[in-house]
Every structure is written in structure tokens, then in C-alpha cells.
Amino acid sequence: MRCLYDRQNKRLMIFAAVFGLSLTGILLFMAWQQGIRVRDSLFMWERRAASSLLEQGVPETAVAQAFANTDVTAQGEGLLVKMGHTEENIPLLFEEPGSAFLSAALTAALAGILLTVVLCAVLIGYMERRERMFETAAGIVGKYAEGDFSERITEKTEEKTAGVSAGTVRRFFQSVDRLSTALQAKSEAERKAKEFLKDTVSDISHQLKTPLAALNMYIEIISGEPDNRQTVLEFADKSAQSLERMERLIYLLLRVMRLDAGSVVFEKHPVRIKELSVSAAEDLVTRAEKEGKEILFDGSPDMELVCDADWTKEALVNLMKNGLDHTEKGGWVRVSWSMSVSMARVCVEDNGSGIAPEEIHHIFKRFYRSGSSLDTQGIGLGLPLAKSIVEGQGGVLSVQSSPGEGTVFTIAFPRQTESGITARQTESRITARQQNS
């Protein structure tokens, strides 16, 4: 009986029930009227018969006995045959019952025709209403196909009467609306992805212009003074720096775009934090020594972190590089780690120039570089990449800084057991067991 949940179907069933009851009532009324006419015609026949017998001198007792008689004899039947009272002559002998039947039949026919017309009109109206509703729904679905999600089927087909449970058609329209919402979200995501790609291409073009222009200039200078060894060496070194900048830019962009595309699957395993930090600093030690800076480590050598070692190393490299970029000669970058009951924390701290309060909320934006930055080779992708890596593994990357006092980046991961369950989940389960017991 789920079809009765639909408001229009319910109304149609109510109409059908009223129609059936009305037809039954008409038929009963006609049968009652016909019975009254037959009864009256029989009473009239008895009066006439009694009057005729009395006029012929038949005693009243004999007339009364004749009307009360229930037996049928052969002599009586033979007399009726001689008088012409046979079945063939019933319409002539009983005109009033015949006319009553004819009148009843005519009334039934007219009532049947009238009720049929009403039934057909109601059904046509019902089907027309349904047809308009589905046409409206088809038009809105057509707009969905064209990318226009400004209308909803349930709103456009909603009836004025409220408070009745939705039927199958209504639930179907609601499902289509939910599908349109999902399509709208997907379309919006694709639009944003296209805008991001457009902005990224624009940013890449802008970022590559400087090193490419510098390379062209360096090549012209080298070509113009091929015999000047000092000039050739100087600008060859600068050319190598420009190429290195371009290489790092392309490398970082590829890593960022892989994360954005969702094609990275983080494989988490226990790894010693000190080994991970030292490995991340390998490529930066030479630069630090050359610039008169130090990279320090502070923490238990046996402390472990459950993470994707390669990607987490990438995040640490970018954080340490950022620290070196923003410290002057004699400065330091320190990597420290600690473990609490529920969290594992790795801090990358420097004693450099710090970050202004008005800029601290922008440092994780792509290609953002502070106007007062000491970094002349920065690209503006290292910190956003580090943040995406940490958050992609379920962690949090936060920053604390004051101008002139240095900066501290903190990576926080939920502490996990060997089974992969976080320590916080383990504590919750133990507490629940204790309460149940």
C-alpha cells in the first residue's frame, strides 16, 4: 500500500471510493422505487379483481378465500390460458410493472453515463496534472544537464497542501535533487580546479620569467667575454643557481599537484625521529656551513613517529630550508621532538628575523613571500607543501613567531600504537571498559 503515500494517488482513491458508494446508493434507490411501483400495481390489480367479483354477486367470503388461497390447480391454470393470461402476454397484462422497469432502466442508464463522464473527467484531470508535473521535472533535469542548478524539482512540483507524507514520486524527485546537489558540488569543484590550474600556470609563468631572463642575460655576458675567465666563472655560477631555482620550482609544483590530485597514498610506518631529521638535513648541511649557520638536533634518539617517512622528510626539508632562508650568518636552526600521552611533536625552530603578525596568516599560501624576507631565492611553495603533507597524514602544522625573535614550526601527529590505533582512542576504550565494569 505504499502507493497510498502519494498525495495525488490518495485523493484518486478517495474519489473512487466516493464514486463506488454513490453508484451503489443510486442502484439501491432505483431498486427501492421499482419495488414500490410493482407493489402499487399489484394492489391496484387486487382492488379491480375484488370489485369485479363482488359486482357479479360472488359472496365476500368466497372472494376473501380466493385471495388467501395458496394452491394452484390444473383447472385454474387452464382457465388462465383460455383467458390469454400467459407469459407471452405479460407486458400487455401488467403494463405498470413494465413501465416501472423501463423507467428504472432509463434512470440507471442516465446515471451511469453521468458518473462515467465524471470519472473520465477526474481521471483526465489527474493524468494532465501528472503530465504537467513530469514536464516540469523534465525541464529542470534538462537545466541540470546544461549546468544550471538554480531550481529544485521538489520546490517546483510542491503542492499547496502540506502535512501529508511524500509518496514514491516525491521521494524520487528528492533523490534527483540530492543527485543535482552532488553534481553541483562536483561542478563547483571542477570550476575551482580549473581556476586553480589557470592561476597555477600563471604563477609558474611568472616565477619562471625571472630565472629565464637572468639565464639569457648571463649567456649574453658569457658570450660577450669568452676570454675573461673570471667573468665566465662568475656568471656560469649564477646560471647554475638560476637553473637550480627552476629545477626546485618544477619539483615542488609536481609534488604539490600530486597532493592536490589525491594521487598520493601515505604509507605509515614507525620511524625514529632523529634518523628522519638527520636524513632531511643532509642536503642542507653544506649550505649551512657555507653561510656560517648551524643545524641542531634535540631529542631522544630512540623516540619513534608513525608516519610516511619519505613525505614527512620532504616536509622537514622545507621547514629547515625556510629557517635557513630567514636567518643571518651565525644563526641556527634546531629540530627538536617530544612525546606526550596522545601526541608526537616535532619542532623546527630558528633564531632568524621572525614573521610579522599581519603576515603570519598568509605564509601557507602558495607563492606568498614576505616583502621584508631575507630569502632571495625562495619560491613560496615550501611551506604550503609541508602543510599539505602533514595534514594529509592526519597531523597539524602550526607556527609561532615574533619579529626579530625567530620562528617555531610545530608538527603534531596523533600518537599511534603498533596496531595503528591512536593513544587517545586506546585511552577512551580503557575508560569505557572501566565504566562498564
UniProtKB/TrEMBL annotation:
Domain of life (superkingdom): Bacteria
Positions of the Histidine kinase domain: 203-417
Top EC class for this record: transferase
Segments traversing the membrane: 12-32, 101-126
Protein name, as recorded: histidine kinase
SUPFAM superfamilies referenced in this protein's UniProt entry, alphabetically: ATPase domain of HSP90 chaperone/DNA topoisomerase II/histidine kinase, Homodimeric domain of signal transducing histidine kinase
Keywords: Kinase, Membrane, Phosphoprotein, Transferase, Transmembrane, Transmembrane helix, Two-component regulatory system
The enzyme's E.C. designation: 2.7.13.3
PANTHER family the UniProt entry points to: PHOSPHATE REGULON SENSOR PROTEIN PHOR (PTHR45453)
Subcellular location: Membrane
Residue ranges the record marks as coiled coil: none
Alphabetized GO MF terms: kinase activity
